[in-house]
Design brief:
The complex is a heterodimer of chains A (about 375) and B (about 190). Chain A is of the alpha/beta class and about 375 residues long. Chain A contains eleven helices and 14 strands. The chains are: A alpha/beta (about 375), B alpha/beta (about 190).
C-alpha cells in the first residue's frame, strides 16, 4: 500500500473537558509528526474539533469517514460522544480508537479500546482503598452514564464488602455549586470519596474539599482521600497547584513513570512542547493510539479494520504505556494499573502499580485475579 | 438495577442457520462467559439450556419444545422481518426481547438482560396466579366452614370468619386448609371468640 494513510482525529479542545481534548490533540500532533518522519510523509491526518457539541461529533465523523476517506478515527473523550459516532463508524466499517477510561459494558468490533474499563481502574482502586480507609464511601459523579455507572458499580462493590454507601450525588456538566454536597459529606463523615465528576465540577469540588480539610482534619487527604479514575496531569493546573495535593487517582500512565520508554518519551515531549509540560494519560494514550494505528496499517498493508485488528492482537507492541496487546475478543488493551497521589508540583507520586490487567468489560470475573499482584514502587 | 447481570457459566443455544451473523453472536456470547451451541433443528425438551436465541424470521412451530406464552427459559428473538406474523410468532413462543437483524453487537447484552428479567417476572406472576387460583378454587370450602361455625356458635358471618382465620393463624396453616379440616370433621368446631 503506497497511498497516503488517512487517519481522522476528533477531539474537542473547548468545553467542560477541553483540557483533556487539548492534551489529546497535542499527543496526536506529536505522534503525527514522528510518523510523518518515520514513514516519509505517507501519513495524512485529518483533524476535526467538534467543540464539545454532540451533533458536531456526528457531523465530524461523517466528514472524516465519507468525505475525507478516513477509515480510522482516533477520538472522542466522553461515552456520550463515542456512542454518538459509533453507528456511523459501524456503517462505514471503520475503526474508532477510543483511549479514555470508561464505564465498560461494551465490546464493539469497530472500536479499539485503549483507555480501560472498570476491572482495570475501579476494581483495583477499591482493592487498595477498602483495607486502608474503610468501606463507607461517599459517591459523587457527573450526571451522565460515566458517573451513574461507576457509582452503581461502586455501590455493588461496597455491598459485597459488607460496607455502606453514605451518600450518592450528581452534578450536571459545568455545574460548580458544590456547597450542599460538601455540607452533606461533612455531616456524614465517609471513609473516602469516589469522585466521578468531570471538568469544572470536579475542580470546584476538590477546592471545596481542600477548604473543608483546613477546617476539619478528618477531611484531609491522608484521612479521607478523594479518589478519581479520570483525573490527569493536564487538569491539575486548572484545579490550582496544591489544591488537590494528597488526593488519589488511577491511570494506566503517569508522567512520573520511571521506565526507559517514558524517560525517552518525556525528552521528545519536552523538545516539542517545552520542558515544563506535564504528560497526562490522555496525551500518552492519544499518542499511543495514533502510533499503534499507523504502525498496524503499515504492517497490514491495508487500513481494512479486520486486518489491522489481527496485527494488534498478534504480538504486543512497545509503547510508552508498556507492551500493548489488544484482546481479539474484547478489542480492549490489557493495561497496567497505577495509583498516583497528587503532589505540589502538578504531578503524581505513584503509590502502587500492577502489571497489565486484561480487560473484562462485562465483569464476568473470567480475568479476575485470585490474588492481586500488588507491588509498591515508591 | 443494583446487581450487575452476569452470564458467566451459562449455557446458551442459538437456533439459527450458521452464517456470519451467528459467528459474531457466538463470539459476543462467549465474551459474556457463556458456552454456546448452535443448531437449526428442534430443541430437546429434556435438556434445555439456560437461555435461547431463536431465528424469528424462519422459526416454525415445534422448533421450541413448549406451547403457551410462558417459556420455561429466557428467550430472545432474532428478527429482521417487520411482518406482523413473524412478530406474533416470536411473542407466542414467549420471547422477552428482540435483537434486530442485521446484528448490531451492542444490542446483544441489553437483550439478554431484558429477556432474563422478563422471564423472571413472568415466572413469578404465573406462580402467583397459580397460588391465587388455588385459593379461589377452595373458596366454597371456606364459605361452608363459616356457615357451620355460624350455626354451631350462633354468631354472625363476620364473627365466624374471624374465628376461622384466628384458628388458622394459631395452627400456622392457610385459611382454606383450616376450613377443609373443619368441614371434613378432622378438626373440632372452634369456640367463638
Amino acid at each position: 500500500m503506497r497511498d497516503a494513510i488517512k487517519i481522522g482525529i476528533l477531539y474537542s479542545t473547548t468545553g467542560p473537558y477541553g483540557s483533556m481534548g487539548r492534551d489529546a490533540w497535542d499527543g496526536a500532533v506529536l505522534a503525527i509528526e514522528e510518523l510523518q518522519h518515520a514513514y516519509a510523509g505517507r501519513i495524512a491526518p485529518e483533524f476535526i474539533d467538534p467543540n464539545a457539541n454532540i451533533p458536531d461529533y456526528l457531523d465530524g465523523a461523517r466528514r472524516l469517514l465519507r468525505d475525507r476517506g478516513c477509515r480510522h478515527i482516533v477520538g472522542t473523550i466522553t461515552s456520550l460522544a463515542r456512542k454518538e459516532v459509533l453507528p456511523l463508524v459501524e456503517k462505514h466499517d471503520g475503526l474508532l480508537w477510543y483511549m479514555c477510561p470508561y464505564e465498560g459494558f461494551e465490546a464493539n468490533e469497530n472500536v479499539v479500546y485503549i483507555g480501560g474499563c472498570p476491572n482495570q481502574h475501579l476494581l483495583p482502586v477499591f482493592d487498595y482503598l477498602l483495607p486502608r480507609y474503610g468501606n463507607r464511601p461517599y459517591l459523587v459523579g457527573a450526571n451522565y452514564v460515566w458517573g451513574w455507572e461507576m457509582n452503581r458499580l461502586a455501590r455493588e462493590l461496597i455491598g459485597a464488602a459488607g460496607g455502606e454507601v453514605l451518600g450518592e450525588r450528581y452534578l450536571p456538566f459545568e455545574e460548580t455549586a458544590v456547597e450542599r454536597i460538601v455540607a452533606d459529606i461533612e455531616q456524614r463523615r465517609p471513609s473516602f470519596i469516589l469522585n466521578n465528576l468531570v471538568g469544572p465540577s470536579s475542580y470546584a469540588f476538590l477546592a471545596a474539599i481542600k477548604a473543608l480539610g483546613a477546617r476539619d482534619p478528618a477531611f484531609r487527604p491522608e484521612n479521607c482521600p478523594v479518589v478519581s479514575c479520570d483525573l490527569t496531569e493536564c487538569e491539575l493546573s486548572d484545579i490550582g497547584t496544591g489544591v488537590a495535593t494528597g488526593q488519589l487517582c488511577a491511570a494506566a500512565y503517569f508522567d512520573s513513570l520511571g521506565t526507559a520508554e517514558n524517560l525517552d518519551f518525556k525528552q521528545r515531549v519536552a523538545a516539542r512542547f517545552g520542558a515544563s509540560r506535564r504528560i497526562s494519560s490522555v496525551f500518552a494514550c492519544a499518542y499511543t493510539s495514533l502510533k499503534l494505528c499507523a504502525d498496524a496499517i503499515i504492517a497490514a498493508g491495508t487500513d481494512e479494520p479486520l486486518a489491522v485488528r489481527r496485527i494488534l492482537s498478534a504480538a504486543p507492541a512497545r509503547t510508552v504505556l508498556g507492551p500493548i496487546l489488544i484482546d481479539p475478543e474484547t478489542h480492549h488493551a490489557a493495561l497496567p494499573f497505577h495509583l498516583g497521589r497528587i503532589n505540589d508540583d502538578n504531578g503524581f507520586e505513584i503509590l502502587t502499580s500492577q502489571t497489565a490487567i486484561a480487560a473484562d468489560p462485562y465483569l464476568t470475573g473470567r480475568h479476575r485475579r485470585t490474588s492481586p499482584q500488588l507491588r509498591v514502587v515508591s | 438495577m443494583r446487581e450487575t447481570p452476569n452470564f458467566a457459566g451459562w449455557q446458551a443455544t442459538i437456533l439459527h442457520r450458521e452464517d456470519s451473523m451467528t459467528d459474531r453472536l457466538v463470539r459476543q456470547l462467549r465474551l459474556f462467559g457463556c458456552s454456546v451451541t448452535r443448531q437449526w433443528h428442534p430443541l430437546a425438551a429434556e435438556a434445555l439450556p439456560d437461555i435461547i436465541l431463536v431465528d424469528a424470521d424462519q422459526g416454525w412451530d415445534g422448533l421450541l419444545p413448549w406451547t403457551g406464552a410462558v417459556a420455561p427459559r429466557p428467550l430472545v428473538a432474532l428478527l429482521g422481518s417487520e411482518a406482523p406474523g413473524r412478530i406474533a410468532w416470536a411473542m407466542q413462543q414467549g420471547a422477552g426481547a428482540i435483537i434486530a437483524k442485521p446484528l448490531s453487537i451492542s444490542a446483544v447484552y441489553p437483550a439478554l438482560v431484558m429477556a432474563l428479567a422478563i422471564h423472571r417476572e413472568r415466572s413469578a406472576v404465573a406462580e402467583k396466579i397459580e397460588h391465587l387460583e388455588e385459593r379461589v378454587r377452595l373458596r366454597p370450602l371456606v364459605h361452608a366452614a363459616v356457615q357451620q361455625i355460624m350455626a354451631a356458635r350462633r354468631v354472625d358471618e363476620h364473627h365466624a370468619y374471624t374465628t376461622l382465620r384466628n384458628c388458622a393463624m394459631k395452627r400456622r396453616m392457610p385459611v382454606e386448609q383450616m376450613a377443609a379440616s373443619i368441614v371434613g370433621g378432622a378438626e373440632p368446631m372452634p369456640e367463638a371468640l
